[in-house]
Amino acid sequence: MGASEMFFPTHVVFGAGSLQELPKHLEALGAKSPLVVTDPGIVKAGLYGKLQGILGAAGIAHALFAEVHENPVEQDCLAALEAYRRAGADSVVAMGGGSAMDAGKIVRLLVNHEGPLSQYDDLAGGAAKVVKGLPPMVAIPTTAGTGSEVGRSAVVTLGAGASAEPHKKIVVFAPPLIPSIALCDPELTLELPPRTTAATGMDAFVHCLEAYCAKGFHPLADAVALDGLGRAARSLPVAVASPRDLGARSEMMVAAIMGAVAFQKGLGACHSLAHALTPVCGVHHGLANAILIPHIAAFNGDAVPERMARVALAMGAAGAGTRDLAHAAVARIDSLVRSLGIPTSLRDVGLREEQLPEVVERALADGCHALNPRPVTAADFESLVRSAL
Ligand SMILES: [Fe+2]
């Protein structure tokens, strides 16, 4: 076995109402004039207004870019970079879900690193080109799911004209992209509608579960993942049923952070399929994971029975016997998803049978399943998708 590497480097500020502390943290970072990167939904929901009030009261002038798309595209980042330069900004405050935070990371990268953005693609060895310092960044999540606030990667779709392969999704993955501070205020998630809460929350749960079951030696990530999935299993149904339950919202925000900290170990087949499904039928990433995970858990269960038994215990199962507990984990995952009132079949989210070959091809090409505890063939992927249809 080769040596393993473990990192837990993100500075996290966590707590209800912690958004109020943003000025203090910006000052500590030496940030005097941030560019706020967000999306139109955050402005409409009044969350940007809240941020604006806090910055204004502290006498911090800021510029705004609020046009990030649901899945960020290169043009979003270039336009935001332009806004950054025009305003003479010295830092980035990214507020929103994974999209706004990822776009903020790319802006931060491009301030001191020349384009084209395509050269920073992780598959093309992009991390080695991230060599200069990046301006400070505060990431403020408004969902509890992706965990992008603590992560070192950003997903962006390259635009036509700026790359040899237009509309290609790339991952930029480099430790300097980790936000200077992840400012996590669960109050910002109190207005999230139940369906978004469920989909993003299941993404967090699946991050924990897949990381825990992934191949590889990473006991620190395992411990974080196991605790995180228990929190998500207990709190997600509460947050969906009672959106303004601050305790459940806080637990889900913790679970999201823990999921993203843990998945540096790796993910698995569920994420390969989710990554394949979104471009084919447009399904939300978290919802794809939610629909698939009961099937993936059943597929993986016998390959890692001891791990699945511990998953069952973390999800509140009692009893003895590894096999029985492993089966209980699969049943509990299934009933968790069914308790959330979201679609439970891929047909319900628009997948058609004739799209199966494309989904299988894309899933096979995705890197996540390399660490799945049970090897996955094209035939396996096909039967997994069929079982979830
Ligand atoms: Fe995910």
Structural summary, described in words:
With 389 residues, the chain is α/β, with parallel strands linked by helices. The protein folds into two domains: 178 residues, 3-Layer(aba) Sandwich (Rossmann fold), CATH 3.40.50; 195 residues, Dehydroquinate synthase-like - alpha domain (Dehydroquinate synthase-like, alpha domain, Up-down Bundle), CATH 1.20.1090.10. Helices cover 49% and strands 9% of the residues. Strand 4, helix 5 and strand 5 form a beta-alpha-beta unit. It is globular. The chain starts with 11 loop residues before the first strand and ends with a helix. The model has no long low-confidence stretch (mean pLDDT 95). The chain binds fe (ii) ion. The site of fe (ii) ion has 4 residues, from helix 6.
Q: Which structural class matches the secondary elements?
A: alpha/beta
CATH architectural arrangement of the largest domain: Up-down Bundle
What is the CA-based Rg, rounded? 20 Å
Helical run tally: 14
Q: What's the shape?
A: globular
Which percent range fits the helix content? 40-55%
Largest sheet: 6 strands, parallel
The overall average pLDDT, rounded, is 95
The ligands bound in this entry are: fe (ii) ion
Number of domains: 2
Q: State the CATH superfamily name of the largest domain.
A: Dehydroquinate synthase-like - alpha domain
In total, how many beta strands? 8
Q: Spans of 5+ residues with little confidence (pLDDT < 50)? A: none
